[in-house]
Amino acid sequence: MAKETTVFASNLQALRKQKGVTQEQLASFLGVSPQAVSKWENGSYPEGDLLPKISEYFEVSISYLYGQETEKKSFEQMVLDELYSLHEKENEKSASSHEEYFEKLLDIAWTGQIACWKNNKYYYKKVVPEEGVRTASVISDNAGFGYFNLNLEKQYYALVKEPEDGFSSHLKLSENLRSFFRGLGEPGVLEILFFLMSLKTFEAVSVSTLSEIIGMDVDKIQNIMDKLTAGDKGGRVIQCVNVVKSDDTETAYSIEPSGIVPFIVLLLSMDSLINPPYGYTMQVGNRDKAWFDREKVIKMIKEVRNGRV
Asked: What is the pTM of this model?
């Protein structure tokens, strides 16, 4: 007498068909016979130690297999659920603690870095050296690149997908670019920006105070602030605040919260260029084309020489 079809059997069969695999292919992945898979889809149950592998294969939870969840969760949602669970545990320890959460995010980012290595399916933990030792991981591919800075003091990850028309179509030689880097090199500019980054939310500083701290004339400080906030530059990194006095108003300056993040990323990247890694934990080069299109670069250079940029 045939067994009654169970929720597990129905879900397993539906998932297998959605994935487009045969009973034989599923059996091969699990290391069992095709007959075993057939029995499961007709009412039997697998051994308990096979359930995590089945769950992993179909990217669903074990609860979903047994019908305790009505909706199949995406891989991304399962990762988010796991992180949220960790976040809740952290909140039980301390309302302000978030370090463990970010450490887990870095572990996930490291998984992404390994995945940039084409056809690699083996995971191994990232190795962060002792303080003062600079290491990194670089993986380049025709589709883009992944860069993971593994310094104990400065861990960050960058995953960049190359545009279909190439990097050189979007990273242009321009006067704005020259002006930006030229401006950062002017005396007092970096000192001002670094001090502004020491301000907390809702704090602002006046030109006179900056003059005292940095040791430059008020007029020079004001000239720098005017340049940093001129035109469409204002509001990207620096915010202007009008402080009302009894008979006048004074302009004070603070950091624009969202604008400062890419600036800090720039500083971290520049630090890696100025102080390159001693070595690379993982360095893979699967890229067989140039980073910039040569014809586009030559065209840009000619336009600059002809004064069109």
From this structure: 0.72
Q: Which two tokens stand for residue 230?
A: 């001129």
Q: Are residues 162 and 181 in the same domain?
A: no
Residue 110 above 90 pLDDT?
Answer: yes
Domain count, the chain: 3
- H/E stretch holding 136 reads strand 135-141
**Is 17 within the bounds of a domain?**
yes
Cα(21)–Cα(30) distance, integer angstroms:
13
DSSP state of 239: E
Please indicate, yes or no, if residue 282 is contained in any of the structural domains: yes
Q: Are strands 144-150 and 279-286 parallel, antiparallel or unpaired?
A: unpaired
Nearest to residue 166, comparing CAs of 287, 268, 283?
287
| Helix residue spans in the chain (DSSP H) | 7-19, 23-30, 34-40, 51-58, 62-65, 75-93, 99-115, 175-184, 189-196, 207-214, 218-228, 257-274, 294-305
Residue 302 lies in a domain: no
- How far apart CA 8 and CA 155 sit, in angstroms, is 43
Sign of CA dihedral 190, 195, 201, 204: negative
pLDDT tens-digit profile of 257-293? 888 899 999 999 999 999 999 989 889 999 999 999 9
Calpha distance 198→204 (Å, rounded): 10
Residues 192, 58 share a domain: no
Show the domain range for 244: 175-260
**What is each CA distance from 236 to 175, 257, 260, 261, in whole angstroms?**
18, 9, 8, 10
